[in-house]
Each structure stands twice: as C-alpha cells, then as structure tokens.
Automatic annotation (TrEMBL), chains A, B, C:
Positions of transmembrane segments: none
PROSITE patterns (UniProt xref): RIESKE (PS51296), RING_HYDROXYL_ALPHA (PS00570)
Protein's recorded name: Rieske [2Fe-2S] domain-containing protein
Species annotation: Enhydrobacter aerosaccus
Keywords, alphabetical: 2Fe-2S, Iron, Iron-sulfur, Metal-binding, Oxidoreductase
Superkingdom to which the source organism belongs: Bacteria
Lineage per the UniProt record: Bacteria, Pseudomonadati, Pseudomonadota, Alphaproteobacteria, Hyphomicrobiales
Length: 444, 444, 444
C-alpha cells in the first residue's frame, strides 16, 4: 500500500516529475524500425512520456526524433517534406536535419545569421534490435544502450512486436513481474490435460509443446509460490517456487531491469525467452514492446506466423498495433468460456493481462491495496525504482550501469528443495543473475 | 428562481453533498431484476449517485452490490468469476460474498488472519417489484422499503421499464409533477377529435380509449390550471383544476413521493396508473424507472406489447435501455409534423418530456427562471426536499416514514367547482392523500 | 514572438476578454442567408464568440438571433414553434419575437404585467450580401455595416461560401495576409509549365487561365518577397514584391480590414477578387466566410459549379459546411503526390491553408515563433488589432469608421522597380488604398 503522494510519485512521468526525470536518464523505445520503413518517407507522430514528437528517416537512413513545431511560425513539420537529408516545413520551407540543425532558410536574406541560431529540439536516436530508441535526458549523461539479449542474437533469432495498453505503465509492469497470478488469471479449468495443453499452448509461452502438462498442473495446484529476490546492478531476479509432484520445487524466475523492462519466468532450457519494455505515452496509456528470442536457432516461418497471430505474450493487433481484444470491446470476453474452459473467458495471455491491468483503473489507486507475501517482487520493484528517483531528486544520477549488465536471461527450473535462489539461478543459467554476456563476446 | 448556491444544493448528489446524503437515506433502484437474470451469471457494472459499483446474483439468487475493485491489487471484479456463492477476482482468486465478506484467500498462508480483516464495501440490496433496490446510507438508519402500489399488486398487474436520460434528475422530476405543460408540450394541433385521439393515444396514458376526447379538449383549452397542494408524511398531492364544458372542474392530480418518485395525474377510475422513480447516475444523467399498474386486473399480452413499444410514459428503448429517440439524434424531430400535427414534432409523451428536459441543460440554471402560479407544485417540491436536506445537515434524520405511507394513488376526476383538493381526493380515492394501503392489507 | 499574456490577449474572444470586447464592436457573420431559407422554418443553433445562440426567420422574413433558453423554465427554444411572427416555447407556450419581446404568455393570468417585464436577450441582425450579420456590442455603439465590395455588386456578380476550421481564428487570418507562403505551401513541383498550370488552376485564384504561368514561376522562384505596408482607416494594405524575368517587380497585395477580414493578393485586372471573414466559434475553432466577386460581370453557371466543388480559396464542403478534407482525415494527404507533384500532397489551396493553420495547434503558441522580414504583414496586423483592443480597455471606443472605407480591392500588378507601394496601388486601382466606393455611388 502506498500513500497518495507516493502513488503519484511512482506513476507520473511527464516532464519535471521525479519519475519522469529518472526515465529520461534511460533509452526509451520510440518506434519499431518497421514503422519508419522508408528513407525520405512520411514522418510519423509519436507521444512519449507526455511529449508530442515527430520522427522521420532521412535520405541516408538516419532517424530523427524532433519537436514537431517549426520554430518559424509553429506549423507542424508532420506536413513537411522529407527530402535531401532533412525535413522541410510545408509553410515557408525552413529545413532541419535529424539533429535539429537548420540546414535551409529560404526566406531569410543571404548571409543572415538566423540559420545558425535557430535550432529544432532533437533527441538522440539509435536503431538497435528492430527498435528505434531515444534518449530524452541531459546530453552529458547519455548511457549505454541496454544489451538485452534479444538484440545480441542474430535478427533471425528474435521476434519483436508492440501493443497499445489503456493504463499506466507501472501497474502493467507490476503484472509482468507478478508470477503468482499464473495460478489464476491464465489458468484453464478443464481437467483434461490434453485439452488444457491445446488451450494453454494457444496462449502460453512454451517452446516445447510436447510435455508442458506438468508445469500447468503445478502452477494450478499451488497458488502460494514462495518468493525470493536477488538484486543486481541492472535490476532484480524475482523467483517464485511452487510444489511439484515430489520433493523438488518448480521455480519460475522473472527479471526486472531498470527502469522499464521485465522478462518472463517460463522458459526451460531449449524454449523461447520473452521480455517486455514499457513506454509511457501519457500517465494513463502506454506502448508495450514485446520480444521473443532463441539463443540457439532462428525462428521458423511457422513460428513467426504464430506470433503474428498473438501467440504467447504477443498480442493480436491491428495495423496500428491496437489489440483486437481491448477495453473498448471488453476484450471480447465470453462468459460461457469463462464458466467452462478458461479462468477469464478472454482469449490470449497478453489479452488476459491487458484486461486485468486496465481494470485496475487508468492509474491504479495503491492507497487501497492489501499486499501479501506473494507480492514481494512488486514491493522490491517499487523500492528500487522509487529510491533511484529520490536519489536523482537529491542530485545523485542513476548508477552508470554498463549496458552489458542487461545481458541476462530468466526462466523456469526444477530444483532440490534446499537450494536458494542464487543456487537455482546458477544451476539454470550458470550465473546467479542469469548473466549470459560472455556468450555474446561481452566478457564477464 | 434559486440562487446559484441553492441550485447546486438541489441538484448535486455525489457523496458528501447535502442532497447526496439525503438521497442515501432512502432505497434507490439500482437495476431491473431482468438485468441480473441468472444465478452465477455475469456481474454488471452500475453507477449510482456518482459511485461506480458492481452487481451480481449469486448461486442462491441473492444480489450483491459492491465496490468493484478487489482490495488486494485493485483489479476490477467485473472480470471475476461468479461462482459458489461469491465473486472471485480473476487476478489472484480472492473471493467475496454478496455482503462483501472475504470467503476465500487462496494466496494467503493457511491460518492467516487476513481473510477476516479484509472486507469489500457492500450495500444492502433487496429485490421487490421487479426492481433491485439498494441502500447506501448509514447501516443504523435503514428505512422500510416504500410500499409503492405497483409492488403490492400481483406481478401480472404491473409493467416496469427504464430509460436513460441525459440531464440532471431534478429537472426531469420537476417536469413530471408539472401538469401545466400538458396543454402545450403534449398537445395535438389537429381539430379533428378522432385523429387527435389516435395520435394522443399513441403517446398518452389513457386506459379507456373510447372517450378521452373530452379530456384532451379540456387540457388544450385551458392552459392555466388552478393549482392546490396537500402535504402528507410521504410527499405531496399536487392538483391542477381546468375548466370543462360546464361548471364542473377537471382535476389532474399528481403525487410527489420523497425523495425521487412521482405519479402521473391522468387515470380515471378503471384506467392505468403510472409512476416514475429517478436514479441519479451522475449529476448530469439519470435512469428513470417507469411503472404502470392496474389494481383491478392483469395486463394483457397486447397491452404489454404496446408498452414495450413505448406507449404512454414508457419510452421506446434499445437493448441497453437507451431511448431510440434521444439527444444525439434530436429525438428524430419532424418539423413538418410539428407544423401540422403535434406541438413538438416528436413522437411519444416520454420522448417529448425527455427532449424538453434535456434542453434545459445538463443541469438547469434556475438562477434565470421566472416561475408563476402554474409552477406551484415545483416550488413546494423544492421546499420539501431542500428543507429535509438542510435538516439532515443539522443532524436531523429524515422522519422515519412507514413504508406503507407510499401506498397511494393519483389520477384525474371531474368535480363540482366548490370542492377543495382534499374533498376531490376523497371523492376520487376515498382518502384525502389517496391512501389505498388498506386494500392491500396494510391497515389504515 | 509574443509573450504568453499577449498571445492570450490576441487570441481569446469570449465575453469579458479584451479582444472579445473589441470584436463585439463590429458586425459578425452569423450565418449564410441560405441557412435560414424558410419563413417560419426550423430555428437553427449557432455558437458565436463562445456564446450559444438561436436563430430563426419569422413570418415576415425577419431574422432573430436570441439567447436560446426560455426565461420561464430554461427550456431550449430550439424545440419551439416558429409561427406567427415569433418563436413559441414547446414547454408552456411562452412566445418571443425577433427582438426578444415576449408577445404571448398563455399561462399567465389575463392582465398580468409579467409579459412586459420578461425579455429574451436578442442581438440586432441584418441580412446583407447573402450573409446574416449580427452585432453583439453595446446598443449605443452600433456601427455601419462594412461595405465590402462583394456586397455592393449585384448578387449575380458574387459567390459566397463558408467552411469550418479547427483552430483559433487569428492564426488562420494571419495565414491569409501572409503572402510569402505561396512560394512553398501552394507550390507545384513539376517543371512542366502546362501541367503546373492545370494543377495550379484547380487550386488557385486565377480568372484568366490563359497565361498565369509567369506568375506561378515568379512566385516559385522568389521565396523572399520585399514587404511594404500602408495603413488606412479600415485596415492595412500589405504588399509583397517579387522579382520577374526582367527589372520589373511582381507585386502581390493583400488587404487586412478591421477586425476580421482579409483580401487575397492575386487578381490582375479582369480577374476574380477573393475575400474572407473569420467568425470565432470558440477560441479553438472558427467559421471562415469566403467570397469571390467580379465588378465587371456575373459569374457563369460553370464558374459557380467550379466554386461549389472547391475552386480557389473556396473549400469543398459537405452539407454542414464541413470540409471534406480536414484534420480528422489528415486532409487526405497523398505522400506520393507530395513527392512528385505538389508541395503538400493535399488537394486545394483552401485545404492546404487549413492543414498548415490547424497544425499550428488549437491556439498557436507565439512564444516560440521566430518572425523575419517576410512576416511584416503579420506584425503590423497584430499591432493594429491589439492596440485597438487596449484602447478599448482604456475606454476608447474603436474609431467610428465609415462603412464605405471597406469598399476596397486588393490584387496583383507588375510595376517598375522604383515605385513604392502607394504608387503601385494607384497604378493598379486608381487609389493608394484601393478604394473603389465611388464606382458604387458611395462618393470619395
């Protein structure tokens, strides 16, 4: 439970808010690369952390992310011409490059100094792992790009999507690191394991579909996983252990990575890894970038088609990345299915998550919540991000974390009952924090 | 005319407003019974007096009206599972019964005291007369259900509907007790009495359609009824007397019943009685529950079909109880019909009322009105309800009115010119306040 | 660049704002005459300078513009009956004439003085030049109607239209007197003069389509016209001179007329004249009345059909005067056309203007603009209108300008390089301010 002030502190991220300042010290996903497919193509509007921005890809393929209004008379450069390495305003022809420099001022007298003094606000942008990332903080503090493993594997080994969500980003991220809810929200009702498998496979994150029945059953049967947390430079390892059929424990281990990434807890060795990154649009909606990757091999066309259709944590979306099942159509809930087959009557793990997270309200009111032992990951996440924001308020910049510290994995494992989380992580990943950077030449 | 402060006082009913506190001392209609048809069926969202609530019918048929957000993490129980005498949250399985008690907490350790301390806000609900009523006030002050006669007759003898209205509830109720406007708003233009009858019958509240012509004419010919008011424990008798063809007076007598009911002034003996109850949703919209009843016999299927189609004070509505003719389509006004046939060009008495009431604005600005002698009923209504709200502000609870005091009728009568309202009521109903409780075994 | 306070001062025009007070000292276009086609026809809602009003044409053809709510109970007279020289409220029959006098009070006792004391707010209205004008200022200061030349020519010689625009009126008017943007916003890309002509003729204001190629080329080739301004009693002459193929200068000369009119700078002798008048609806939208006229001859049916379809400064609109290409559909921008054919990819001069003006924001933020020499007309316009509003704040009414001072023209001319603006105007129109009132019997 938070008091009103802390709830605002945690969830508000427009300019000049403490959390907004903190987020602006990190790289944010602004667009999928595929959203700016063409050099000199149409510019595209985006809204990020409450700021209206304009993006374009120039003649050389570079991406610009700029304030949209021309400094001359305030016309929106969205109507501008993207040509010859710059965006030219449709009103009077002023032209700016991807860095916001004024490169042509046709109405100014030759020799005018205006061109050198006029500047369009521009944020640094980098294209990496099929995503366009931008940095909106002070220029003397640009951090390294987070070396998420999905960007370290060949493009053929990853799949990246995005979806819109109609609520504050924090409660959505909290849903992702809360692995206790799998016993309910994503549960299937049927006792027929084969049917459960078919249904669950439609909506779950399983790479190997031949024998996930044990895990489905273990998750359903134990609604009280024991939680353990390990902090590291880039975030938190969040483990939840459930009973199995014998003395061993079934661990589902997620990762939170500062400040807005979370990794799913499902993958056994040889299965698909999933992660998500949140981009606050305003305080009451966000984009969720979702990625799957396999360190071991490329995805097949069939697997990609399955993802396209909304498999696993990926959502089924329309051409504008809006989920087909969303708050405006009650997620196409089917109350008969809810009675007979699935816990929610809503199709898709991603859609089940969206429904329950949106339902917490545009911004969850945490002054009325009652947290318990299974919410430990959420508590630790809040501590970590709020104390970083408070430190920044005091003038202490976020630790300059090496980008490679983000090269971690998360997933599932069955371990002897006496192993602690660090031991389980080491068994599963060879490292207590799941670090795999060395496999990609990043050293230890 | 009211000053700004009094207009606000009269019309605002969210929590912590004086009028809101007063209304919360009475039973409010929350839903039609038919809106929760099924045990363990889907929960339904409602908004009442500005509060978002959730309703559900449990395994035993009991209805719960609860705060919609789960105390655990704030997920909306709308997505929950209605099963085995309780509503179970879809996020982590917390479960609550119709009284808001926590009956299952699967994620809490066995023996945890949490279950006994966690409580979901719940309002008492009763099902009576095809309506689900709720009480939102202090638990030590629950009043008796108002014994409206439509609830005392067999179900076969009543017909209940509801409709949405896009304005503050007070101006709508004021329209219902203002019987002067029948000479205009609901008037027909044609001089052909048979045609007038046909049109008027489509839209009027007449049981006997063989000779209402006199009344239509009397109402049209006398736009200045003389008003008289009689107060009683449960409300006001509001009589308006018009000239007839001879020396007698044609009385149309409505009832206002505290705090949000009104009865129509039309029924002659042997005709259908009509009443309405207002439910403020927010301060700028409301539900209107409308009921017809006959003490003497069941409604026929043909009569019910007529009501279904928007006869009399009932509105023609869609599956969501939204009027087919509403503010968003200008009530399908036909300006040619307005020139030639009906005063408004709008079809239906209910729709004519809605149009003119909505047109007063989301909340009527009473600082600019000019009331006259024919507005006496409205003036007395405001006095009664505002003084009750002021008394409650001073700590004086509303009088504990016996529910049976609501067992009254209203209607029309033709009386000698020397009779006062009490005498006319006694002639017409056998009692100066129209009390008929003794006919239903409620005593005197 | 303006500071925040001045930007508000310039752009806000609701009641009790300084600019609102200034505008209320002038006649405002409320409707096209064609919008109230019928005597005793349906009343029509309008919103002007933030005020909701109701208009109707009475039995004698007179137009009333009144406050919409009946003084009795606040019902909207929109539902009223327009009959026998007055509008009768549908609720209780109160009736008002076009001057707001109460002419019938059926519910009041005979002899009641109420009728003489009740008054409906009404603004004086005049019908002139196919437009209904209203005056919303103090009754002791009613000015003369501005004698715009389009109203002085026979009806056959003019064409009047209107269109909705989704931004503050000031930035839209500023776009109209900014003739520098023709080198960009309305430019065509093709080098083929014949194709340019065809495209440009679709969208430009040219009467003689046989050889405008020179002008198109001159405008395209010189993006830095030299500006000169001449003030006069009714407004400003705003000239911009561009290079031609020889030593002469090509002048494009607009007019701003107080407080909300602008004339286009294109017409050579024998061509069509264009003007526009802005009507603020709220501070973030407006109606633009657009008119073409020929002093010399009637428009042909073919020319009128061309205007109907959105030729020149006229927009292609639907039955509600909403532009077919508007902010909600991104003006049907075609990015391929923008690459190959026209500077914007948007069809129509009027639509290109709307797109760029809307894009400046609901109210342009002038605190961030950077004006230059080609923005001189805009600077002088702001000085003139803001100083008039400040004078009115000090109690100095706007100069009582004779209506005939609005009888001016604007247009284009090719002049020797040594001529100043007054000389060019005299060469082109016979008068340094373009005055032509004497041609219409208004004297000098």
């Amino acid at each position: 439970m938070l008091n009103r002030a802390d709830n605002d502190f945690l969830t508000r991220s427009s300019k000049d808010t403490p959390m907004g300042e903190l987020l602006r010290r990190f790289w944010m996903p602004a667009l999928l690369s595929e959203e700016l497919p063409e050099r000199d193509g149409p510019p595209r509007k985006v809204k990020i952390l409450g700021e209206d921005l304009l993006t374009f890809r120039d003649t050389n393929g570079r991406v610009g992310v700029v304030q949209p209004h021309c400094p001359h008379r305030g016309a929106n450069l969205f109507h501008g011409r993207n040509e010859e390495c710059g965006l030219r305003c449709a009103y009077h022809g002023w032209k700016f490059d991807v860095d916001g420099n004024c490169v042509d001022l046709p109405a100014a007298p030759p020799g005018s100094a205006h061109k050198d003094t006029v500047k369009l606000l521009s944020y640094p942008a980098r294209e990496w792992a099929d995503i366009i990332w931008i940095y909106m903080g002070p220029s003397e503090h640009v951090p390294e790009l987070p070396q998420l493993e999905m960007g370290l594997v060949p493009a053929s080994h990853r799949y990246v999507s995005k979806k819109w969500q109609d609520c504050n980003w924090v409660q959505s991220l909290e849903g992702a690191i809360d692995t206790a809810h799998f016993s309910f929200l994503h549960a299937v009702l049927t006792k027929d394991e084969r049917e459960a498998l078919a249904i669950y496979s439609r909506s779950a994150a399983l790479g190997d579909q031949s024998r996930p029945d044990d895990r489905v059953r273990w998750v359903r049967n134990d609604p009280r996983p024991k939680f353990a947390i390990l902090g590291h430079d880039a975030g938190l390892v969040i483990g939840g252990a459930r009973r199995t059929d014998g003395p061993d424990l079934y661990w589902r281990i997620a990762q939170f990575l500062m400040p807005n990434h979370a990794y799913a807890p499902v993958a056994f060795p040889g299965e698909v890894y999933y992660g998500q990154t949140w981009l606050p649009v305003s305080d009451t909606d966000c984009w969720i970038y979702t990625y799957s990757w396999r360190p071991d091999r490329p995805f097949t066309d069939a697997e990609r088609a399955q993802f396209d259709n909304g498999f696993g944590v990926h959502s089924q979306v329309d051409d504008n990345y809006m989920p087909v099942r969303n708050i405006r159509n009650d997620y196409l809930i089917d109350r008969t299915v809810q009675k007979t087959t699935s816990f929610t009557g809503i199709l898709g793990v991603s859609e089940q998550d969206a429904a329950i997270q949106d339902s917490q309200g545009p911004i969850q009111d945490r002054t009325r919540e009652h947290l318990g032992p299974t919410d430990l990951g959420i508590v630790e996440f809040r501590k970590m991000i709020m104390s970083a924001a408070r430190a920044l308020q005091r003038g202490e910049a976020p630790k300059a974390v090496s980008g490679k510290r983000y090269a971690v994995r998360s997933g599932g494992w069955v371990a002897a009952p006496d192993r602690d989380l660090a031991a389980v992580m080491t068994e599963r990943f060879g490292h207590p924090h799941g670090y795999v950077g060395h496999e990609h030449g990043l050293g230890d």
